[in-house]
Amino acid sequence: MPRVSKISKSPPAAVEDILNRLGRNIRTARLRRKLSREELAERVGISRYVLADIEKGKPTTAIAAYLGALWALGLLQDMREVADPDRDEEGKILERARSPKTAPKRKTLDDDF
Amino acid sequence: MPRVSKISKSPPAAVEDILNRLGRNIRTARLRRKLSREELAERVGISRYVLADIEKGKPTTAIAAYLGALWALGLLQDMREVADPDRDEEGKILERARSPKTAPKRKTLDDDF
DNA sequence: CTTTTATGTTAACTTAAATCAACATATCGT
DNA sequence: ACGATATGTTGATTTAAGTTAACATAAAAG
């Protein structure tokens, strides 16, 4: 992507790690299934060059290409819970602090005077 | 990405679903943390426009932008197990079929004649 | 060894991803 | 109501992502 973002040019180590990991995992899954790059790429709908980039963990490659590879390998379901609000404990705490779900008990009756 | 791949132009429904989900989840996490698009985008190292694309689930956006958003929200660890070979049961079966890990028991002794 | 098959590398080309500026329109707090 | 902040939209610009072709090298299969 032109005017390449900082995040793509030099991603934080954590992001780079995940990217390399993902690439390796996709490669492993492909080899286990005895697929060549060309075969898998064709099923995904990309060129073999992009699949090579994916296996290398290239940051600037379109997310759909990565997800397409997972999809063609039958591994897309692993993405379903990513950033799931139900599992985002940090977020839930912050939300609760703002708008307490349990209605605060009134100390006194509304109409006591 | 120019010469846009088929997978990006018209992703399979499953991929589109995951993409929309991811976008929504990132948005939810951002709002819970009371961050504006501009604030989060700046932390990620992208423009507010790209973050808007991400929350819409745009297929052609660089994977690093998506991962950067997860990272800035403290949700990147959700990606660690995606396509993990240890959890790829389908792949493990295929591999086992090819090269049986348990050495096949010899029916007869090696030196029986 | 020889022939496939898989992958690496380079170069040329097309086109849209990402940025910025400017303005419009919510949405929120006071 | 008001002003401030957040987000939507448009157009112009830049530049690299993705494609193809061609050739090189590596690894399997015969």
Task: Note down, in words, how this protein is organized.
Two copies of one chain form a homodimer. By secondary structure, chain A is mostly helical. Chain A has one domain (6-98): 434 Repressor (Amino-terminal Domain) (Orthogonal Bundle). The first copy, chain A, contains six helices and no strands. In chain A, helix 2 (13-32) crosses helix 4 (48-56), helix 3 (37-44) crosses helix 4 (48-56) and helix 3 crosses helix 5 (63-72). The first copy, chain A, is globular, with a radius of gyration of 22 Å. The N and C termini of chain A lie far apart (67 Å). The model of chain A is unreliable at 103-113 (pLDDT under 50). At the A-B interface, helix 1, helix 2, helix 5 and helix 6 of A face helix 1, helix 2, helix 5 and helix 6 of B. The structure holds a DNA duplex (30 and 30 nucleotides).
> Judging from the principal axes of the Cα atoms, what is the shape of chain A?
globular
Which structural class do you get from the secondary structure elements of chain A?
A: mainly alpha
Number of H- or I-type helical stretches of chain A: 6
| Quaternary structure type | homodimer
Specify the CATH homologous superfamily of chain A.
lambda repressor-like DNA-binding domains
Residue stretches of chain A low in confidence (pLDDT < 50, at least 5 long) are 103-113
Q: How many strands, which pairing sense, and closed or not: the largest β-sheet of chain A? A: none
Estimate what percentage of residues of chain A fall within beta strands: under 5%
